[in-house]
Design brief:
three-stranded antiparallel sheet; 206 residues; mainly beta
């Protein structure tokens, strides 16, 4: 949760759930109403990686065949490599709700990334290329955090020219209706595409 994400995928910055309620664990998905949040798995600590080059000429932002702008590798990226940090101004969720929408003419387009229940990264201010990384259901990257900062890491070796993706995994407390899934539609084209950027609901046991 580009969170949040882009057009159909909330280019709502790509991950942080929709403002309207506090989201739950990742980028801040598209803001609208409800309680969405993207999950950016808890990290293993990046103290040593924090000072790694955030981009250089390793990646570039350009038009995506999936949606709007995307981020592409310019050179080979190795599995486990930290590609870039998701940067921006760290604000509270009440402040995120106050600022929403970033663009009144396109309210589902924001750059929020959920850190925890109290804070969110607003990449509209001080953000970098990471905010343009699109969602995919079978991604080649993942969002990892150390409790304070969010990093995009390669899940596998990535070739020059490949577009970078991670799974926004948007979590919304309300029932997943066909209309809601369409609102968060995914167009990644993967054979494993869920058809939505929403994370699968957990099955209740018993």
């Amino acid at each position: 949760m580009k969170p949040s994400t882009q057009a159909a995928a909330p280019k709502t910055g790509k991950p942080a759930g929709k403002p309207g309620a506090k989201p739950s664990a990742k980028p801040a998905g598209k803001p609208t109403t409800g309680s969405a949040r993207q999950a950016a798995g808890k990290g293993s600590g990046h103290a040593a990686e924090a000072d790694a080059p955030a981009g250089g000429r390793r990646i570039q932002v350009r038009k995506s065949g999936v949606h709007g702008k995307g981020v592409f590798a310019r050179r080979p990226l190795k599995k486990g490599e930290t590609v870039i940090e998701y940067t921006g101004e760290i604000i509270t969720w009440p402040e995120a709700l106050r600022r929403h929408p970033h663009d009144p003419s396109d309210p589902n387009h924001t750059f929020y990334f959920h850190i925890d229940e109290d804070r969110v990264i607003d990449a509209k201010y001080g953000g970098n290329a990471a905010r343009w990384i699109n969602h995919a259901c079978a991604p080649n990257c993942e969002a990892d955090d150390d409790g304070e900062r969010v990093f995009i890491k390669a899940l596998r070796n990535i070739k020059p020219g490949e577009e970078l993706f991670y799974d926004y995994g948007l979590v919304i407390d309300e029932r997943y209706t066909p209309a809601l899934k369409r609102q968060f539609a995914c167009h990644c084209g993967s054979a494993r595409c869920r058809g939505t950027m929403l994370a699968p609901k957990r099955q209740k046991l018993g």
